[in-house]
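User: Sequence recovery, please. Input:
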């Protein structure tokens, strides 16, 4: 099987612009064309190499030939065959022309999709470039090791072999990271359990340069004289994965205050709301990645709220979204596959059964089937495609995010109480309620008491955050951040938001 001349991936296209055919993967063919615009590119798909049927995509310009790539200039999509690519460049010489493989079309169904894709692409390309620089430095470093070794072979032969192996391992590691980042480019949903997905999700255009500094490899200088005196210190390498700042955001609507907690250092920063903020007490929110928080619902002395908004945690810019169909406070919500599912809540003295989902790609709300059980002040957990809901009942409600309906569940809770937090932990669920933490084995339909906890209203206003083997969530009645050690089953208060 042919491989791309720029990477080790299987080649899917062949270009005849030179005297000898050159093979490319779908990611590097657009780069090849745009970097060699003076050549005549006769590219075609390699027979049997493409799993997708690219001929289903027709060129926007000629409307005849199969499109091989997409140009995203001016914030729009233009499907292009190879000949029309040069025509498109000449027709719009004033524009920059970011080219993407044709397969990207399936992810770009709306303007919101395009903006997210371009933002993700910029982050991925930035990190990949930083990693390639590391690889280049490691290759040079490896060559320098060989030159130095010829002068000190009697002293450092064993050491150099060990260090060079580290360099090769490090190169492979960075290449692996590049592959992970490349694979994340086309995912419909990022998986935080994977390194690259988690890095991208916690990155934004404001912090990626800082995070990238932690990707750099530390290389010592090669100096013969001190090496002769101290062979062990002649060459050193160190590799570290970047440690992005995991943050928790807390909104105190009544006090017009935004609190941000850096979990890496448990540092707390507080700022006052901008004048544009229109949040109410009793709302719920969740992190949707890329430095954005989704917030909805709430109440004040006069009314309940159906509002929803996006908040940029870096700039504190506030973007209003379409209103929900139902006014409510204390709802449960969960972000999954570019959608926010909102269930239940509290309205005029009663808990609600209603459900709805906000679709970012369509910028609209859709009403969902009612929950079997009315409940409020609860969190939602997810295992696979299913959302799980507890609280105010012995029953557990389960929602299928693909079929958009509730399914039967035989799990019976020993106790029913309000103000509860449910969270996924590996392949099971943990329920914090009243004065107990319960472990729910979904596959076996079993519930067991895991540990005793302080009695309280254990509703977290946002879905719990998993970080370094711990779960972080809030407690509604004491305005505090709590940490649960999932290995030792220990619960401890970290800080109080309201002083």
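Assistant: Recovered sequence (499 residues):
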């Amino acid at each position: 099987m042919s491989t791309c001349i720029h990477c080790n991936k299987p080649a899917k296209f062949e270009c005849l612009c030179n005297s000898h055919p050159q093979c490319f993967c779908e990611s590097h063919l657009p780069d090849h064309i745009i970097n060699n615009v003076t050549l005549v590119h006769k590219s075609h798909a390699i027979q049997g190499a493409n799993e997708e049927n690219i001929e289903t995509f027709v060129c926007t310009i000629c409307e005849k030939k199969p499109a091989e790539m997409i140009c995203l200039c001016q914030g729009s999509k233009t499907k292009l065959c190879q000949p029309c690519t040069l025509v498109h460049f000449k027709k719009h010489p004033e524009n920059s022309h970011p080219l993407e493989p044709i397969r990207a079309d399936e992810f770009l169904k709306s303007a919101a999709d395009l903006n997210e894709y371009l933002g993700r692409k910029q982050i991925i390309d930035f990190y990949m470039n930083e990693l390639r620089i590391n690889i280049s430095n490691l290759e040079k470093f490896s060559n320098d090791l060989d030159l130095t070794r010829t002068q000190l072979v009697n002293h450092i032969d064993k050491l150099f072999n060990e260090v060079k192996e580290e360099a090769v391992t490090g190169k492979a590691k960075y290449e692996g990271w590049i592959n992970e980042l490349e694979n994340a480019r086309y995912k419909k949903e990022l998986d935080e359990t994977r390194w690259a997905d988690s890095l991208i999700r916690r990155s934004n255009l404001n912090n990626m340069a800082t995070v990238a500094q932690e990707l750099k490899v530390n290389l010592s200088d090669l100096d013969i004289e001190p090496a002769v005196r101290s062979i062990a210190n002649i060459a050193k390498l160190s590799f570290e994965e970047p440690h992005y700042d995991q943050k928790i955001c807390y909104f105190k609507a009544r006090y017009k205050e935004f609190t941000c907690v850096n979990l890496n250092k448990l540092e707390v920063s507080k700022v006052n709301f901008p004048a544009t903020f229109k949040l109410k007490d009793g709302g719920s929110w969740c992190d949707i990645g890329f430095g954005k928080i989704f917030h909805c619902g709430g109440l004040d002395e006069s009314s309940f709220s159906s509002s929803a908004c996006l908040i940029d945690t870096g700039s504190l810019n506030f973007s209003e979204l379409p209103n929900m169909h139902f006014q409510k406070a204390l709802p449960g919500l969960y972000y999954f596959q570019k959608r926010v599912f909102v269930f239940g809540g509290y309205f005029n003295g009663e808990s609600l059964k209603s459900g709805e989902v906000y679709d970012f790609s369509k910028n609209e709300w859709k009403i969902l089937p009612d929950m079997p059980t009315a409940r409020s002040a609860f969190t939602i957990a997810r295992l696979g495609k299913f959302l799980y809901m507890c609280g105010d009942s012995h029953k557990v409600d389960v929602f299928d995010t693909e079929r958009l309906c509730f399914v039967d569940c035989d799990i019976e809770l020993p106790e029913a109480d309000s103000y509860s937090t449910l969270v996924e932990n590996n392949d099971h669920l943990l329920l914090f309620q009243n004065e107990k933490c319960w472990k729910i084995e979904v596959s076996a339909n079993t519930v067991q008491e895991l540990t005793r906890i302080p009695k309280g209203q254990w509703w977290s206003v946002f879905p719990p955050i998993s970080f370094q083997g711990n779960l972080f969530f809030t407690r509604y009645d004491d305005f505090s951040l709590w940490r649960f050690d999932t290995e030792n089953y220990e619960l401890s208060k970290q800080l109080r938001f309201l002083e």
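The helical segments are 28-35, 82-91, 111-151, 153-184, 195-201, 208-213, 224-229.
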